[in-house]
């Protein structure tokens, strides 16, 4: 025999006004929780160095005389930083206009990776919120480069890719690559050429590195706005239904 619910045991119905108040409170609570959700995006591309919240720099004038393929250097703020690459060749310090005839600004001190030496990694002793630098391929022509940020367990937070043109103009036109994180959670970052129209992609130089604090504020992603809109819609529909029943 099927079970039949009897009205005798049904709970007393809540007053309409009380139910409306509860629904409104639930909708408001859901909206507040959505508004406080952080953006899930970790890394934002920075194309203008002036927009980075720079707190420290690494200048290659402080590089050891024979740095080899792996060396430590102090930033201008005293932060010890390890610099390495995946190849076996030695790094070399060059100067735009005298020992490097590229498209950095005249007199800039550069770090050349010594040839086909792959990915260059910069690992400060401490977490940062962003970084930026200029990069040039060692052979003239177009090239594509990438900067990638990693957390303290080696997880990729995000990458920024850009395209540049390598020349001997000495005009500061070397490609700038930068990133900013939504928090101070970047343990290290890497720089590499992913394509070059001439020569080999692993051969490049960079200028001084800017280290930055995190972004001032995180902007919610479109998906977060969608969740907020959905919460508003649910609350509005529930309110209208009980308004009609009142």
Structural account:
The chain has 246 residues and is α+β, with helices and mostly antiparallel strands. It has two domains: 43-212, Jelly Rolls (Sandwich), CATH 2.60.120; 218-246. The protein contains two helices and 14 strands. It has helices at residues 16-35, 222-245; strands at 43-46, 54-58, 70-74, 80-85, 92-95, 109-112, 120-124, 130-137, 141-150, 156-166, 175-181, 188-196, 204-206, 209-212. The strands form two sheets. Strands 1, 2, 5, 6, 8, 11, 13 and 14 form an eight-stranded antiparallel beta sheet that branches. It has a six-stranded antiparallel beta sheet with strand order 3-4-7-12-9-10, with no helix packed on it. Strand 3 (70-74) and strand 4 form a beta hairpin. Helix 1 packs antiparallel against helix 2. Mean pLDDT is 80; it is low at 1-17, 25-41, 216-225 and 234-239.
């Amino acid at each position: 025999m099927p079970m039949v619910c009897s009205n005798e045991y049904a709970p007393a119905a809540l007053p309409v006004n009380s139910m409306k108040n509860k629904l409104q409170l639930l909708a408001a609570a859901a909206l507040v929780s959505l508004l406080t959700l952080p953006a899930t995006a970790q890394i934002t591309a920075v194309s203008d160095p002036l927009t980075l919240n720079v707190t420290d720099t690494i200048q290659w004038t402080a590089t050891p005389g024979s740095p080899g393929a792996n060396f430590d250097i102090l930033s201008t703020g005293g932060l010890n930083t390890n610099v390495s690459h995946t190849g076996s060749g030695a790094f070399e310090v060059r100067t735009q206009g005298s020992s490097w005839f590229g498209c950095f600004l005249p007199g800039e001190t550069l770090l050349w990776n010594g040839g086909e030496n792959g990915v260059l990694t910069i690992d400060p002793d401490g977490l940062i919120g962003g970084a930026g630098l200029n990069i040039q391929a060692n052979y003239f022509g177009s090239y594509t480069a990438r900067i990638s940020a990693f957390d303290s367990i080696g997880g990729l937070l995000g990458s920024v890719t850009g395209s540049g043109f390598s020349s001997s103009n000495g005009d500061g036109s070397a490609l700038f690559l930068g990133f900013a994180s939504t928090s101070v959670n970047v343990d290290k970052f890497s720089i590499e050429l992913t394509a070059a129209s001439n020569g080999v992609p692993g051969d490049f130089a960079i200028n001084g590195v800017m280290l930055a604090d995190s972004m001032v504020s995180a902007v919610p992603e479109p998906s977060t706005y969608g969740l907020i809109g959905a919460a508003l819609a649910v609350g509005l529909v529930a309110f209208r239904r009980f308004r009609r029943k009142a």
